[in-house]
Structure formats: C-alpha cells, structure tokens
C-alpha cells in the first residue's frame, strides 16, 4: 500500500506541467551570469573536458574562481567521479577510499532495500561510465610532431610518412628511419626526441601518459606534472617522472636509463631505484653503464648545450679575474679533526667571491638570450630565488674566518660516514643567526638543531639524526653526531690530542706549500671498510689486487691560484711498489710516439708504460679470471699456431703509446694511434693471425678483410669490414702507426719528418710546467677551439639553433684555449697536475664529447634544413 502511494506521487511529479517561460527565464539568468564572468577569465572559455575542469580546482579552493566557474565546476563534479576524486585529493592530499560497510543487526524493510538497490545501480552506472572515461583516452588525444629530420613513419601495412604538424593518435606506433630523428610534443608540454631507428607508441588516461619504447633511444624533456604522471615503459622497466630530462635506450640485451636533470624512479619487477642527475641504471648485467653525455650526444640539443657552456665559460673567465682568496700556510682547524678521520677537506670562505659570482651571473643573464632561455627553462619558478640564497650564504659566511673544513669518520657496524664541519668564528651574533635559520627551516621537521650545551648521549632514535650546530669558544662545529661534537669541543679546549690521525702529516705538508682547496683521504681505512662490507669480499679483494688499488694508501687533491694562474694536482701514495693496473705507468721518459701528432690536434694522450707486453698479459689474465666465456674465445683464436700468438704480440710491443684526434671532424673524426714496436715482423704476423682467427669464429657475423699495398715509402696495411669501419696502418722506425684513412696516415708520417709536431708547437709548450722533470709518465693535451670553430661553421648552414646560440658557440671557440694534464710516476707514487681547470676539467674539456657528437651528426651538411 505504501509503495503504491510512493509510485503515485512520483508519477504526479513527472506529469506536472511547467510553464516554458519560467524555464527560459531561469536559463537566461544562468547564461548571463556565466557569459559575463567568462569574458574576464580565459580558462572558462577553454573548457573541453575533465583536464580543463581539474585545472580550475586550485582557484576554486582558494576562492579566486569567478562565480560562473564555481557553478560549472560544482555541476560537473556532481556527475564526474574522477574530478570529484581530484577535488578531494587537492583538499586533503589523499584519494578517497571506500569505508568498510557496517553490518546492521536489525532487519531492513523491503522498501528501503529496494531504494538502496536502485542507488547502487545508479552509482555503478555513473562510476562505470567515469571509469570508462578514465581508462579509455579521448579519440583525439595524442601527440603533435614538432619537427622531423629525415623520415618518420607510421608503423602499418602502408607505412606512410608523417610530417611536422601531424597529430599522432594514441596507440599509433611510429618509427624513425635510419639517419632520421624527430621530436613529438605531448599535450602537457613535454617533448620526446627519437633517435634514428627508434619506435614508440603512447597511451594516455586522465591521470597519466605512458610512452612505450619498443626499440632505440629517446630523450624526454618532461614538463612539470602538476597532476598525474609521465612514464616511459620498456620490456624490462618502467621510468616515472614529475619534470626532468632523461634518456632511455631499449635494445636486445636490455634497457639503460640516464638522467640529465631532475630525478626519475626506475621500477624493474619488485626493485625500485631513484636516479639523480648524472646517474644511470641498466636492466641487465649484459648492459654496461656508459657516461650520461654519451647517451644524449645524438640529440639535436648537443649544440644548444654547447652554447650554454660558452656562456658559463665567459662567466668563469670574468670570475677568474676577480680577487681570489689568498693561500693559507697554516690551519687552526686541521688539528681539531677526530683521531679516526678518513677524509679531510678544506675550502676558503668564499662568501665575498660568491657575491661577485652572483653579480656576474645576473649581469650575464640580463644580456644573454642563450643563458636567459636556459635559466627560464630549468629554474623552478616557485622556489627560492638565487639572490636570496646567495644573501643567506653571504650573511652566514661573514661570521666565519677564512677557512671552512670538513672531517669524515666511519662509525658503527655498517661503517656509516659521519661528517663534522668546522669553522672559526670572527664576529659575534652567530648563535642568534643560527637560531633564526633553524626556526625557519624546522617548520615541517626538526632537521636542524642549534645546541647551547651538549647532551650526555646520542638521541635514542638515530636512524635519521638531525644536523646539530654547536659553538665552542671561537669555533663552530656542525655534525649529525653528538659524540663528534663532544670530541671536537674537547680538542678546541685543549683537553684532547690534536692532529692525531693518519693523514694529518700529508695535510700539514700541503699547508706548508700553500693551500686553497684541499682534499685528503685515508684510502687504507676506506679500502678495508669497503672490502669488509662487500657481499663478495673475496671477489672485491681480488679486484683490488688486479687494479693495484689494494696498496693505495692516501689521496691528496689540491687546487690553488698562484700569481693569477690556476694550478691543481692529485697525489696518490702507495704502501709499497705499485702493482696491477696502477703499476703499468712507468717513470717519466721520452714519448717518441707523440711526434706523429700535429699541432692541429683537438686531443692527444700519451703514456710511457713499463711494458706493453706486460699489459697484454695482465689484461689476458684479468679476462681469464673474470670472463671465462671471453677467455675461451681468446684461447680459440690462439689455437693452431706453432708459437703462442699472444706471447708473440706481447713481446713485440714496447712501452711508448699515443692516441689522438688530429685533423678534420667531418665526415668522421680523424683519429690516429702510434705504439712502439720492438719486432715489426712478429707483430704483423700476430695481427694477421688475429684477423684470420676472428673470421673463423662460427658466431662472427662481421668478416674482416686485411689488404697490403707496397709504395715507395713502405708497406701499408688496411683492415676493413662493413662501412664505415676502416683501419689503415704501417710500420715506421719501430712504431706501428694507425689512422682512420691512408691519407691521414701519410700526413702523420710527413709531419714527423718535417718537424711539424705537437710537442714542438708554441700552444703545447706554453702549457708545460716549470719543474725538475724533463719528460712525463703520461699526458693529456686538448684544444677544443678548432673543433668548436668547425662546429660553428657547420651550424651557419642550418637552422637547428638560434643566431644567439650560434654566436655563443663562436665566442666559445674564440675564447677556448689549449690545456695540458700531466702525470709523473714513482715507485710508490703517482702525481697528476694541470694548469687548466681542476685536473683539466673545465668548459673546454666538458664540451669535447658534445663537439664530436654534433660534428658527426648528419644534421650539419651544407644547406641542411631540419625544421
């Protein structure tokens, strides 16, 4: 009876006639309010789906959304489950979850059960539709092809070509041809750069976009993901980001992930790894890690990176001309380091210099289009400004003396590193400043604590200890360990032995000759801890013995400015005679192989080895111990010969070796090698047998061809395989000289005979140090200027970079100077020094990999049009 009454009431409501004029008047009022409001808010005129509604949520919550927008969003959220979830997530930071149903003890009347059933049906229907919209992407969703160099193909039976401006639908496979690349722009602003012969397809839901890499390489410039996430999936791993630049390569052997900027999360099965800039991850032991620059060198942006390097090079030059901190010939801080110190570092108080650097950067930023573009793309707009950070550091540094030191000890069963920062206080007010900073930093945590007195013991929970700051007299100590602070306090008050640690004598020696930037490490303690903690300690120890690191005792790195000239050095001390790989380097001696390199070389490295033959045997032994399968193949090569193949080769080689990039970079780098040979006949016999053995291997897919030609100047040999592989070599005055072409080989011989050599050139000799040594044990010479000039000329024929970027690279090339890193080896020491950056690491050397990659890239033929 009651159900009949309800049905009758519902029927009467449905059949009730409503005056059309009332409906029209109400609609007109709503329409007017919405139109008037949308005229002043562009976002309200561009609502096409859930993503646009969700973009309005922050304004909705902070009350800045116009009334019309609030009406539209309220109405949409009522009927859209994903957007309702997004609203809840924005409010609380948590996604809503279903509550556990409460079991009713009393019997529910039939009519209520019917109402609940109807509500469930409606909810399931609406939820299913919303879930369908969430899982199944819009038919028009996809990516737009920003640019293509060469050909981009749609993978299908027809295999039609895709051009710039075309939209690639979700789930559409696309592939670049050999020698081609392309850039796709996603809806969120992210860009995906495809290397030659790379294939991807994409799928997108309301909350995430996944790029499936089937093969090849991609570089992803991920936009900041304000909602949702961006993933790259290969067969073996899934890479997740929130805004960064990274590269992923997929091949038969596995995948490799490389991070250029930001951070990415790599999931492989149950294993999850977080990678930071400069780090790599591989999914298989068969895939070795490489350098991150190598992984992105094929990118069109290589030249753009060079332009930014050029700007930083100009700033570095300006900063080098600014007044530098003076050398320190003694230290009040070094004696205070704990007795179990394994690492000690000391740097000058660079507060004043940092202010100058900040001013130089800001001036350059306002003048340089290249630097401004880079800064706007990579600087977080919602983070602290550079000036504010510099000002805080400068204020802090003004309280301190001219030196700041760091001592590191190893504590506990896990031998975790415990740092201790030390500085002398020269101004009152530091305690109040630190307390103010701690108050600002500890809004959400208690990560930084300023102690006015030391507690009796460590806090009970030390898994994530805070950073403690403590003032003892005229000294500031900062550490995560209360025990370290207490020990430093006792040393500062004269209640403990000072300078009572192994590497203190090496540190004192460094101060005697003048210290600026100083780093010293007790490798004996570090090595012992590393082997002990290593899962395969026996294997780790064997590896140390093979490399010779098992006797490495100390490492001391220094960088200083003497009479306006930068000098840097690294001194390696061994507890006995150098062994293994560390023992390969011979005492300083003549390097005749360097005479085959001309003054035009972009890079040359030479070394005097104790015996190249000993190195061959060392390598073979290492392969036999660590790579049994490779050793079997090597042994197979040597079978069937009356004398030992490798014994013949080893005994034929001397100890003088040079490798160089010497000549044109296009169409391929002009490399050359020269190595001393005691017995050319035996050496050639060994090479011929190696070529023959490689060709006879069943699994060998590439067959080598060795040819010999006679000329008036001697016998020339050539080893070729599939293009563009080619090695040309000959024997000259007990040297085997090899090069990328016969023309380059002939030129090298002629340059040596006429004296046109690198070692006699002014640009090389100006880099030589003034010391008691006549020769070197090893050296690395570089001169990126000619290579950069070649690249700049090639860029003039393209539109891959802007005029400002081309000009920055040209300026970089003009300002680039040669550099030299050199090494001396003693019985139990190796010292490495340079007058060019820190051990030669400066903008010029950082540019070399990108220069070579960009020069070889097919984007730079004359007249190429890439966009």
Task: Write up this protein.
With 867 residues, the chain is α+β, with helices and mostly antiparallel strands. The chain is 37% helix and 25% strand. The strands form 2 sheets. It has a 19-stranded mixed beta sheet, with helices on both faces. The protein has a 16-stranded mixed beta sheet that branches. A hairpin with a 3-residue loop joins strand 8 (199-204) and strand 9 (208-221). Helix 9 crosses helix 25, helix 10 packs antiparallel against helix 12 and helix 20 (645-652) packs antiparallel against helix 21. It is globular.
Task: Please supply descriptive tags for the structure shown above.
867 residues; alpha+beta; 16-stranded mixed β-sheet; disordered C terminus
The Rg value, from CA coordinates, equals 34 Å
Low-pLDDT segments: 97-140, 533-541, 855-867
Q: β content, as a range?
A: 25-35%
Portion of residues within helices: 25-40%
In short:
The chain has 867 residues and is α+β, with helices and mostly antiparallel strands.
Fold blueprint:
Blueprint: H1 2-15, H2 20-38, H3 50-55, H4 57-62, H5 67-79, H6 81-92, H7 110-135, E1 142-149, E2 152-154, E3 161-162, E4 167-169, E5 174-176, E6 181-185, E7 191-194, E8 199-204, E9 208-221, E10 229-233, E11 238-241, E12 245-250, E13 255-261, E14 264-268, E15 271-275, E16 280-282, H8 292-296, H9 302-320, E17 341-348, H10 351-367, H11 369-378, H12 386-397, E18 400-411, E19 416-425, H13 430-441, E20 448-451, E21 467-472, E22 475-479, H14 482-492, H15 504-512, E23 517-522, H16 523-533, H17 537-547, E24 552-562, E25 565-574, E26 603-608, H18 612-626, H19 628-638, H20 645-652, E27 653-661, E28 671-677, H21 680-696, E29 705-711, E30 714-720, E31 726-732, E32 735-739, H22 742-754, H23 762-765, E33 778-782, H24 784-795, H25 803-815, E34 819-825, E35 829-834, H26 843-856
Parallel strand pairs: 9-10, 20-21
Antiparallel strand pairs: 1-4, 1-6, 2-3, 2-5, 5-8, 6-7, 7-9, 8-9, 9-12, 10-11, 11-14, 12-13, 13-16, 14-15, 17-18, 17-23, 18-19, 19-22, 21-22, 23-24, 24-25, 25-35, 26-27, 26-33, 27-28, 28-32, 29-30, 30-31, 31-32, 33-34, 34-35
